[in-house]
Each structure stands twice: as structure tokens, then as C-alpha cells.
Specification:
Blueprint: H1 15-44, H2 48-73, H3 77-82, E1 84-88, H4 97-110, H5 117-127, H6 137-142, E2 144-148, H7 152-162, H8 230-237, E3 283-288, E4 293-295, E5 300-303, E6 316-319, E7 332-336, E8 342-346, E9 353-357, E10 360-363, E11 370-371, E12 377-380, E13 383-390
Helix pairs in contact: 1-2, 2-4
């Protein structure tokens, strides 16, 4: 047996299904009243006013009976057929006989022969509901909301059919250009910034105090020749700058040690500059209005009962309870893009997703991701979250 969730977790009913239930109820009521009038005219009296009085009395009794059933159970023949229920807004409990009588009276007055203007007006107020819960003027008057109480499987299938046909996978696209990358340079010695490019004529003579050192099977260097310095090697690597002539390997003082290949010698007594270490990756944290908070480690799905699609790699499933049924089953998703930016996207929710940045709100289009920055707030129906950046 299928277990139904608490009424406050049911989705808001669609206007098409509500109109179908209303049409079924009206068709059954009119058929029953026509049958009462026909029976009265055939078997009781053929007087016109007698027939009208009997039909009017039957209409009042039928209105009372339907209002009692609606107030106690939240349903009617038409709503039971399409799987809808009228409940109290915010609590999800039956509305009672009094509000049901008032609600039925407003609907009955709107259904009078007015060329459909009354029903069209109520439908327009439901479409223009600011809270996106499809509550018409009669619903606001009686504090009611119409919800869909069909089994979860049927609602999930319909939600899948009505969702956007092209869903962008956040983990497979680059949403915004990557920020400029900071170039980490190796620290240089102070004299490199003040030394001019040496030319062959600028080469200095070797120090006279350097003790002669003989290398086996090596001819002594000619007098006046200077050993190649680190700056000389740099000059040789620069196009357009003449490099010094190759010389015999220089004679080094005994207290000096040859530097490793590819690295400039460090003078004795000079402090060793510590290389700059690049900063670690930034972390993004989300804070929900129910106190839940976590660091984003991958794609996250938000909704009443969020579920991943086939082959979708999901790191976080965030179920959110909704007091007014304004959060869809899988309402939205957020997660990191390849460049590290956090993006959010509405997944075809019923009531939409709103991004609030510095007090300015804008609604996101379904299937179109939007980049988030530090301090942004995202509203999912009656729930919200805030994103912050951690070093």
C-alpha cells in the first residue's frame, strides 16, 4: 500500500487539474438537479413554480451536503477523481464546514450565467498569486490551498514530463571565464634588479687574491679572462644580446662550492629568501535557514525529496520540508564549475528559484545556471540558503 506523506508536503495542484475537478462537480450537480426537476414535473406537479421551488430546495441541500463533505475530508467527486484535496493553508488540515460553505458559495456565485466571467476572474487571481501557490481570491478568503494527493510515483512522472527538456549538467560545462591566474615567480637576488646587461667588454678580471688552483689535464685560463657569471648566462639566453665567448671552466675559491646546474650561486652571507607558497584552494559553504551548513564538495540537489537522474554524480542531497508546499520534489541544484565558481540552476520547479544579491531579487530561468558570489542568498519557495567563501 502506498504511503502518503503529510499534507504539508504535497505539491500545489495545477490549474488544469483544478478546472477539470470543478467541471466534473458542476456537471454532476446540474445533472442531478435536472433529474429532480424532471421527476417533479412527471410525478408530482407540472406547475412551473412548483418545479422551480423543488429544484431550488434540492440545490440548497446539495450545496450543504457538498460543503460538509469538503470541510470534513477536503474532497468532492470531481477532486477525488483527479486526485486533489482542499486543505488549510499552512497546516494541511481539513478546513471545516464553515470555510467550506463560504468557499462553495463564492464558487457558486462565480458559476452563475455570466458568460464565464466569474470563473475566469477567479482563475486569473489564481494565476497572478504572488506566492506562486495558485491560490485564487476564494482560497485567500477561506485560508485554503488545493494540493495534489496522487501517489508519489505519478507525481514524479508528471514532474519529469513538465521539466525543461534540456538540463545543463553543471559538472560538464565552463559557465564563466576563468579568473586571471596569479603568476608565482621565483624570488631573485637583490643584485639582479640593479645589474645592467653585461657585454663582453664589461667582463671583470678575476680577483688577484684568488689562490691558483690547478685542474688535472686542464690548461690554465688566459690572463685577463673572467669566469662567466650568472648574469652572463642570463644574457646569453636573451635573443639579440651577444653572449660571451666560452671560456675554460673558472677556478673557484676553496671556500666556495659549485652551485647545482640551472641555479644561480648565492653569495656568502646573503639571506636565503623563502619561496612564495601559493594559497590553497578556496572553499564554499552554504547555510540553510534550518541551521544546516556544509562545505560544497560537488553537485548538490535541493527539494522535498531530491533524486539524481541516471548517471548523475551527486555529492549532496538536501531534503527541505515546506510548510506551504512551495518546494518541489527536486527543486534546484548547485555546485562547482570546472573553474571553481559555484553556480545554481532551477530544475523546472513549480514555484521557481530566486537569487537575492545585495538586496536585489531576480528569478532564475529553469535550466539556465547562474554564478554565485560571496554573500548571495538563494530562495527555494519558502526556504532559503546563503553562500559564503572560506579561505
Amino acid at each position: 500500500m502506498t504511503q502518503h506523506p503529510h499534507p504539508t508536503t504535497y505539491p500545489v495542484a495545477q490549474l488544469e487539474r483544478r478546472f477539470t475537478a470543478f467541471a466534473v462537480d458542476r456537471l454532476l450537480a446540474w445533472s442531478l438537479l435536472a433529474l429532480v426537476g424532471l421527476v417533479t414535473a412527471l410525478f408530482v406537479s407540472d406547475d412551473f413554480w412548483t418545479v422551480v421551488g423543488v429544484v431550488a430546495g434540492a440545490m440548497v441541500l446539495l450545496w450543504l451536503a457538498l460543503a460538509v463533505v469538503l470541510g470534513a475530508t477536503g474532497t468532492s467527486p470531481g477532486k477525488a477523481m483527479v486526485g486533489l484535496r482542499v486543505v488549510h493553508h499552512g497546516t494541511g488540515t481539513p478546513i471545516g464546514v464553515g470555510p467550506a460553505l463560504l468557499r462553495s458559495l463564492v464558487l457558486g456565485a462565480a458559476g452563475l450565467p455570466t458568460f464565464g466571467l466569474g470563473i475566469a476572474t477567479l482563475a486569473w487571481t489564481a494565476v497572478e498569486d504572488r506566492n506562486r501557490q495558485r491560490r485564487g481570491w476564494h482560497d485567500h478568503l477561506t485560508h485554503t490551498v488545493v494540493v495534489d494527493v496522487r501517489p508519489v510515483e505519478e507525481v514524479a512522472d508528471e514532474d519529469a514530463d513538465e521539466g525543461p527538456r534540456h538540463i545543463v549538467n553543471l559538472t560538464a560545462m565552463r559557465l564563466i571565464p576563468a579568473p586571471p591566474v596569479e603568476v608565482i615567480r621565483t624570488p631573485e637576488r637583490p643584485e639582479h634588479s640593479t645589474r645592467r646587461q653585461p657585454l663582453p667588454a664589461d667582463l671583470a678580471a678575476p680577483p688577484a687574491t684568488a689562490p691558483p688552483a690547478t685542474a688535472p689535464h686542464t690548461a690554465p685560463p688566459p690572463r685577463g679572462a673572467a669566469p662567466p657569471t650568472a648574469a652572463g648566462r642570463h644574457a646569453a639566453a636573451v635573443p639579440g644580446v651577444p653572449a660571451p665567448q666560452p671560456q675554460v671552466p673558472p677556478r673557484l675559491p676553496p671556500q666556495h662550492h659549485a652551485p647545482p646546474p640551472g641555479r644561480a650561486p648565492v653569495p656568502q652571507g646573503a639571506p636565503h629568501a623563502a619561496p612564495r607558497v601559493p594559497a590553497g584552494p578556496q572553499r564554499w559553504r552554504v547555510h540553510f535557514d534550518n541551521g544546516e551548513s556544509f562545505v560544497i564538495a560537488g553537485l548538490a540537489l535541493v527539494g522535498r525529496r531530491p533524486e539524481a537522474r541516471a548517471g548523475e554524480q551527486v555529492a549532496h542531497l538536501v531534503p527541505l520540508t515546506s510548510a506551504d508546499m512551495s518546494v518541489s520534489k527536486t527543486h534546484a541544484q548547485f555546485g562547482p564549475a570546472p573553474d571553481g565558481t559555484i553556480v545554481v540552476m532551477d530544475r523546472g520547479s513549480t514555484n521557481g528559484t530566486i537569487l537575492v544579491r545585495q538586496g536585489v531579487s531576480r528569478q532564475l530561468a529553469p535550466g539556465k545556471p547562474a554564478a554565485l558570489v560571496d554573500g548571495d542568498k538563494v530562495v527555494y519557495g519558502d526556504r532559503e540558503m546563503t553562500i559564503t567563501r572560506e579561505a
